[in-house]
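Design a sequence for this backbone.
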């Protein structure tokens, strides 16, 4: 967990002070936390008050873990939490220099949000999406500022994971890309720039492995525990692919595989039928307390 780099923070803070995060779920609250920790004022937009309260409470608990790990002064977590506000309206974007959208992995939902954000946000504001696979070019085309639309793909758990995959859409400008690369460093992350292609790099490589692990389970090659243990002890992965799928959310895994299957047209990305069945049953992983494991 690297500390934000102050040199980068100074450069970026000249342009970006207020950040709105749309969606306070697993990814959204983590993103809000890392921006607040980096000294930015953050406003979380949620659809319901209870979701907003849950997001802020999750950030509070996560900050306590970080405080313990990094030996922070007792008041540091509450100081950071003061930078986090929330509301139920996209009007928060009116004063934002950067908006990061982190809602469900569904193009129609994102389209609606980007149209509204484009109308609300100041002309110079950057609109970023935390999408894990949907085309940034297509999202940008829903706005009149395609040059200021970009992908900022954070990894779960956001406070812990070092990477931000930065995705340039076809029309994303050099200036927007440079600012987002700087900004990612300012919040202590390591950005990697990639092209806009279905699944980008992270999920293009990760999801086939997870999908194959689900096929192994469906075909009875091994139990969930056996498959995960092989990958943990044999490949030194911090967690097995099925446990990781439960962490990411099985609905999200399915949505990403669908985007790659449709977008690349190659049968090797065909989502495993067992994954579809689990999603249909509402077994979505940790968030529904049941996935490949029970929680
Ligand atoms: N907030 C703050 N700190 C947290 C945290 C959180 N939400 N979650 C974990 N931590 C900290 C813990 O406090 C702990 O710190 P210490 O080392 O000081 O004890 C450390 O992280 C490790 O956590 P745990 O001891 O609880 O558990 P662990 O050692 O098993 O690690 C893990 C958990 C970090 C999740 C690790 O298993 C891991 O790295 N797994 C792989 C995660 C991964 O691959 N993520 C990417 C998913 S793909 C994605 O997100 C993109 C997509 O589009 C799908």
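Sequence:
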């Amino acid at each position: 967990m690297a500390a934000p780099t102050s040199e980068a923070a100074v450069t970026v803070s000249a342009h970006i002070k207020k950040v709105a995060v749309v969606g306070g779920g697993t990814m959204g609250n983590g993103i809000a936390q890392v921006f607040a920790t980096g000294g930015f004022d953050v406003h979380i937009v949620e659809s319901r008050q209870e979701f907003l309260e849950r997001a802020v409470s999750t950030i509070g608990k996560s900050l306590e873990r970080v405080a313990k790990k990094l030996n922070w002064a007792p008041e540091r977590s509450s100081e950071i939490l003061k930078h986090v506000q929330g509301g139920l309206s996209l009007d928060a974007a009116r004063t934002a220099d950067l908006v990061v959208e982190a809602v469900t992995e569904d193009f129609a939902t994102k389209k609606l949000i980007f149209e509204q954000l484009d109308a609300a946000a100041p002309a110079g504001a950057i609109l970023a999406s935390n999408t894990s696979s949907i085309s940034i070019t297509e999202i940008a085309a829903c706005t009149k500022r395609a040059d200021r639309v970009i992908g900022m793909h954070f990894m779960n758990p956001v406070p812990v994971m070092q990477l931000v995959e930065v995705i340039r859409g076809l029309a994303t400008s050099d200036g927007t890309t440079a600012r987002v690369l700087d900004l990612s460093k300012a919040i202590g992350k390591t950005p990697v720039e990639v092209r806009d292609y279905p699944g980008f790099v992270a999920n293009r490589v990760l999801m086939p492995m997870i999908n194959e692990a689900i096929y192994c389970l469906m075909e009875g090659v091994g139990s969930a525990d056996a498959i995960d243990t092989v990958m943990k002890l044999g490949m030194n992965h911090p967690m097995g692919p099925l446990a990781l799928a439960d962490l990411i959310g099985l609905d999200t895994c399915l949505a990403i595989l669908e985007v790659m299957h449709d977008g690349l047209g190659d049968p090797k990305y065909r989502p495993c039928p067992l994954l579809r069945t689990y999603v249909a049953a509402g077994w979505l992983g940790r968030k529904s307390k049941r996935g490949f494991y029970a929680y």
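Strands lie at 18-22, 41-45, 84-87, 98-101, 126-129, 149-154, 163-168, 190-195.
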